[in-house]
Design goal:
30 helices, 3 domains, binds pyridoxal-5'-phosphate, six-stranded parallel beta sheet, twelve-stranded mixed beta sheet, about 45% helix, alpha/beta, Rossmann fold
């Protein structure tokens, strides 16, 4: 199989020729991080834009033809449209990027990026949390920097989980199927009328996959889909949901992602020189690379060395559940016919997945990836240490005392996470001395200009974003009350009484146990005194999902939900359902303080606090993950015991109350004679100045290129051997 026709997408006969570029734009997520492009859709009809949940493909599908025709004759609209389209086309065609400028010697070589999840936009629910957004931001930044990267992932038709909280506070999952035809994904075709379908090579019983494509600027992301008639019912379900609890289904997912994904690239004529694995889920891609090399007449040893030096692995968590492991018997069930193609006995292959901490007979995906990739990294300085500690024995067995695991600290895609109003404000004050500030945003010098912004103006934008958040939560709850007739108490606990003037703390992330969402409820009386201070009230907004198989996480949600119902909290504790990308945007822009209190050293990095800090939302965090690198004494707050591992909830909570009572609340409510909280704004500026450049995805992707991609490409091109094992 080789001929592949163009990507198929729906026809939009209702879109007039003059503005037909809207269809191309709708199918490229580039619009999502370019505010002017967003406006091109919004201006068509602001209400329809909201009703489409900011999904332009759906909007174009639903808009009446006359609206589009009217727009195509409106000179004002057309002017805006033409400017945006010209920039869009220019950026997609551009050959002058940071990458081509600095790494022209790598011309013609492709990098393949594999991840089980991608957080790109709420219209594509292919993420569970931070790992996914990290991957999504990596792709967006790779597009901005001009990297020759292609990505592989899953088309999860049921997404991760649509959270609904029952009357008793227990999380339920409402099954909601993605409407593939109203999403910005295109079918990859074999020819004009047949969809590409491939069998995952040499795996028995057979699994078939079809492919979709999303465009993220210049980066194509290929999404694997097993929900096709060629598969039996169990196989059809492989790609239905992220992270199923069933181990065998999980194994089949990872076979599809790693082996199927590599094979699909091959069919599409894409031969990546190097591959980058985001976490262990796609690690079978390494086996497939060995198989290809052995088929090309390399010995296993040669293939092994080659794969090792051209593969990169990023490990993301010290949490045991984050490391998949499969019994050998289960491996044999699928790889029975595959082992023999690898040029080495089955035992050697299975031995590569042995982790010293596991009982025998287990294939550990992280251990395998660590052995098979010469470039390995954790996702913050601290996590690098933790990972070296965690995998010490694995490397000691091969005579390496300090495990060769480095770190590249995560970063967030600034154009995605910076609120457009903030961006506009920065533009006003940064542009005179640096018109290209946004494209040079990883330069710390740019951000020194933050002090040129008058306090009043920064505060005004912040207040506006806070109102927007509170209005959005209240309106949402009001509509639910009207349409579903929920118990009024749920309207209160969902945030109907939130006050846009009160000091607002946000806590939103996955409800994994180690993140300790309920820490602040350790001492209820003390918390009530803080929250209910009549002159200096404090409110807390919670949001987040628990993994469907994680009952402990669900119990924490239930607890928080029940606290939100307590009358004596006066509606100042709110739990907002169904946390996703859109609510994250509102929260990280609109609260005053972003709270983070995981149990160290479990938070490998954490990225939501970076999104908050970038927008002047002050980070109040335990010293763990990225905050150890970022906290400078004045750009937010740090608290918590320095002892790791022990049960320390009570003392950590005590320090948190202390900080709130003594510093955070007084600072927020200290207003100068002119009516503005200048001291607070000073801290906001310091947060933006000190974190925006360093914790940007731009800085991060550049580090991956310099430390990882470029040396690996160098090896592949020169064929020179690295001694790293
Ligand atoms: C950024 C983000 C996360 C990751 O947050 P952490 O603080 O790293 O846990 C999770 N979910 C959403 C929707 C996000 O935007």
């Amino acid at each position: 199989m080789n001929a592949v026709a163009d990507k198929f997408r729906k026809d939009f006969p209702q879109v007039p020729e003059r503005i037909s570029g809207l269809v191309d734009l709708a199918y490229n997520l580039w619009w999502s991080w370019n505010p002017a492009a967003k406006m091109v859709f919004k201006q068509l009809n602001p209400q329809a834009w909201v009703e489409s949940t900011h999904n332009p493909v759906r909007m174009l599908t639903e808009l009446p033809e006359e609206t589009l025709v009217t727009a195509s004759k409106n000179p004002l609209y057309l002017r805006h449209y033409d400017i945006v389209m010209s920039r869009f086309r220019q950026e997609l065609a551009s050959r002058n990027s940071w990458y081509t400028e600095h790494f022209s010697h790598n011309h013609g070589h492709t990098i393949a990026y594999f991840s089980a999840e991608y957080g790109l936009h709420h219209s594509l629910p292919f993420y569970a949390g931070g790992l996914g957004f990290l991957a999504g931001d990596h792709l967006k930044e790779s597009s901005d920097l001009g990297l020759p990267l292609v990505a592989v992932g899953f088309m999860y038709s049921e997404g991760y989980l649509n959270q609904h909280i029952g009357q008793d506070g227990w999380q339920e999952n409402i099954k909601e199927l993605l409407n593939r035809d109203a999403s910005p994904i295109k079918r990859v075709m074999y020819n004009h009328d047949t969809q590409l379908v491939a069998r995952v090579p040499f795996i028995d019983p057979p699994i078939y996959i079809s492919v979709w494509r999303v465009d993220i600027g210049t980066i194509p992301l290929y999404l694997l889909d097993t929900d096709i008639k060629e598969n039996d019912p169990a196989n059809r379900m492989i790609s239905s949901r992220l992270y199923t609890g069933d181990n065998e289904q999980r194994l089949r997912q990872e076979i599809v992602l790693g082996i199927g994904g590599s094979y699909i690239l091959d069919i599409l004529g894409i031969r990546p020189t190097i591959i980058h694995l985001n976490e262990g889920h796609p690690a079978f891609a390494l086996l497939e690379r060995i198989r290809e090399n052995v088929a090309d007449k390399m010995s296993f040893e040669e293939a092994y060395a080659h794969v090792q030096n051209t593969s990169l692995f990023t490990t993301h968590t010290p949490v045991p559940a984050g490391h998949d492991a499969f019994p050998h018997a289960l491996m044999d069930k699928y790889f029975g016919g595959y082992y023999s193609l690898l040029g080495t006995p089955r035992e050697t292959i299975l031995g590569l997945g042995r982790a010293p901490q596991d009982p025998g007979g287990i294939f550990n995906m992280t251990a395998f990836a660590l052995k098979m990739c010469a470039f390995r990294n954790g996702v913050s300085k601290r996590h690098g240490e933790v990972a070296r500690d965690m995998w010490q024995r694995l490397f000691a067995e091969n005579g390496t005392n300090v495990p060769p695991i480095r770190h590249i600290t995560n970063g967030v895609h600034v154009p995605t996470w910076l609120d457009p109003r903030m961006e506009l404000l920065f533009n006003t004050y940064f542009s005179p001395s640096c018109p290209n500030w946004l494209s040079e945003h990883d330069s710390p010098l740019i951000w020194e200009m933050i002090n040129e912004i008058p306090d009043e103006e920064l505060w005004a934008v912040h207040v506006q974003l806070k109102r927007k958040l509170v209005n959005r939560i209240r309106e949402h709850k009001r509509r639910k009350w009207v349409s579903e007739g929920t118990d009024p108490i749920n309207v209160v606990s969902g945030g109907a009484l939130l006050d846009p003037n009160a000091l607002t703390i946000g806590f939103a992330r996955r409800f994994s146990t180690y993140k300790r969402a309920d820490l602040i409820f350790q001492d209820m009386d003390r918390l009530k005194r803080i929250v209910n201070n009549r002159w200096r009230p404090v409110q807390i907004i919670f949001a987040g999902k628990a993994h469907p198989a994680d009952d402990e996480g669900k119990r924490i949600i239930q607890k928080v939900y029940q606290y939100a119902h307590q009358q004596d909290f006066g509606g100042r504790i709110a739990f907002v359902e169904d946390y996703g990308e859109q609510m994250a945007q509102y929260l990280v822009h609109g609260v005053d303080v972003w709270l983070n209190n995981p149990l160290p050293p479990m938070e490998a990095c954490g990225t939501s606090g970076m999104k908050a800090s970038l927008n002047g939302v002050l980070h109040m965090s335990i010293m763990d993950g990225w905050w150890i690198e970022a906290f400078n004494g004045t750009n937010g707050w740090a608290f918590g015991d320095t002892v790791t591992g022990k049960n320390r909830d009570w003392s950590d909570a005590g320090q948190l109350y202390e900080l709130l009572e003594r510093e955070v609340v007084p600072l927020y409510y200290t207003v100068s004679n002119d009516g503005f909280p200048h001291m607070w704004v000073k801290k906001m500026k310091e947060a933006i100045r000190s974190t925006a450049p360093r914790f940007s995805a731009r800085r991060m992707v550049k580090e991956y290129v310099r430390q990882g991609y470029d040396p690996a490409l160098g090896f592949a091109v020169a064929g020179k051997k690295s001694n790293v094992r």
